[in-house]
Amino acid sequence: MAAETPNLDVEKIEATVKHVFGMLGGAVISGMIYLGDRLGLYRALAGAGPVTSEALATSTGLHERWVREWLRGQAAAGLIDYAGQHDGQDRFSLSPEGAMVLAEERSPAFAAGGFGGLPAQMAVIEKLPEAFKTGRGLPYDVFGAEGNRGVERMFAPWFRTMLVPVALPALDGVQAKLEAGAHVADIGCGAGVALIEMAKAFPASQFQGYEISEHALALANANKQEAGLTNVTFHDARTDPIASDASFDLITTFDCLHDMAHPAPVMQAIRQAIKPDGTWLIADIKTKSSFEENLRENPMAGMMYGFSVMSCLSSALSEPDGAGLGTLGFTEDVARVMTREAGFTRFQPRDFDHPMNAYYEVRP
Ligand SMILES: C[S@@+](CC[C@H](N)C(=O)[O-])C[C@H]1O[C@@H](n2cnc3c(N)ncnc32)[C@H](O)[C@@H]1O
User: Fold this and answer.
1) Can you spell out the DSSP letters for 28-81?
2) Is 151 close to ligand 1, i.e. is its CB under 6 Å away?
3) What is the position in ligand 1's atom list of the atom closest to the CA of 238?
4) In the chain, is it the N or the C terminus that has fewer CB atoms within a 10 Å radius of its CB?
5) Residue 318 in contact with residue 136, Cβ under 8 Å?
6) pLDDT at 236
7) Could you tell me the residue range of the domain that residue 248 belongs to?
8) From ligand 1's centre to the CA of 164, what distance in Å?
9) For the purposes of burial, counting CB atoms within 10 Å of the CB of 342, is it exposed (0-12), middle (13-18) or buried (19 or more)?
């Protein structure tokens, strides 16, 4: 048995087993976060004070025995608080801080929405052994409507709370142009939340979204309809790409360049589409310039490489000769080189205090 081999460090084996099961714990508890969000359990707990499983089951219309098991797991995982017993029944509560992260869709700290895409992402793992063998990845639409909705809800808090009040005013001259009436495009616009937030704030401007995912486009059009906006249009980039007419004052790309099978031609198209004094705002995953630095300094690197295999690298290799940048592949150095090669001359990193994203203001 390996543990009896004299050269092996038994304590290290035990620590490794603990570490590995910790990973499994994270995966299983992530599934429970998904259920808590999907079933409205966190929302029902928020502001309700200490509640019993019976009370929570009643307020959510769910079965008490299942709710009790979920509550106990959540308390054991430290996500909600155990508030002791009352009349022989366990009571549980969600702190106001926990509610911001798990229950309040409009809070800047809301994180539970990102778990919405988890089952779709996990389901893709079944298809990945084939990708490892052939080298060919899977397009974004493999995650279906639910996966795209998960991506929407992962990034929406920043768009809703930071993009218009903080990020746009920090860009050189952009706010004034938007107020006066500007021409704006968002490439890889997903469910369109960024464009919709901008379109609501700047009614004199016109906004165009470009996507290749049919699920994302369907979500974007539904979101537009719900917002009642007339100054936003979404386009299928495969059949109706951005025009090469130097007409755009502002172009944005949020967390999509590293996912693209062919980012270089998209960057060249952006260069053709932007006005000579226009601005391109890039947001992409914060990453160190080398794997070794990520290993030393990026506590999220393990998760990010996992997301890459399941989603970003896969999408970036989903077409022949895909660039394959992957989640941590669009470093600042890569961004500088690729934007220069696409014909841009100015490159300014911007810090909008995002836990996951780096921002660059790029100009012709
Ligand atoms: C991680 S999602 C980000 C979506 C959105 N920008 C957001 O922040 O919510 C990346 C998106 O890029 C889209 N995409 C990938 N390649 C593209 C291309 N060549 N043109 C337009 N969109 C593309 C994908 O379909 C996907 O919706």
Assistant:
1) HHHHHHHHHHHTTHHHHHBTS-SEEHHHHHHHHT--HHHHHHHHHHHHHTTSSE
2) yes
3) 20
4) N
5) yes
6) 98
7) 119-363
8) 20
9) buried
Give the domain-ending residue among 61, 77, 104: 104
Angle, helix 10-38 to helix 64-76, in steps of 10 degrees? 140
Same domain, 90 and 224: no
Say if residue 351 is in the same domain as residue 303.
yes
In a domain, 112, yes or no: no
Measure the N-to-C terminal CA separation of the chain; round to a whole number of Å.
Answer: 64
Q: What is the pLDDT of residue 353?
A: 84
50 shares its domain with 183: no
pLDDT of 174:
98
Per-residue confidence (pLDDT) for residue 355, from 0 to 100:
87
For 275-293, write each residue's pLDDT tens digit: 999 999 999 999 999 999 9
- Determine the Cα angle at 286 with ends 285 and 289, to 5°: 115
Give the residue ranges of the chain where pLDDT is below 50.
none
Q: Are residues 177 and 266 both part of a single domain?
A: yes
Are 90 and 175 part of one and the same domain? no
Give the end of a domain, one of 69, 104, 139. 104
Is residue 267 one of the residues assigned to a domain?
Answer: yes
For the Cβ of 334 lying below 6 angstroms from any atom of ligand 1, the answer is: no
What pLDDT, on a 0 to 100 scale, did the predictor assign at position 5? 64
What are the pLDDT digits (tens) for 151-186? 999 999 999 999 999 999 999 999 999 999 999 999
List Cβ neighbours of 296 (8 Å cut-off, separation of 6 or more).
none
Residue at 111 is within a domain: no
Q: Taking a C-beta distance cutoff of 8 angstroms, is the pair 246, 217 a contact? A: no
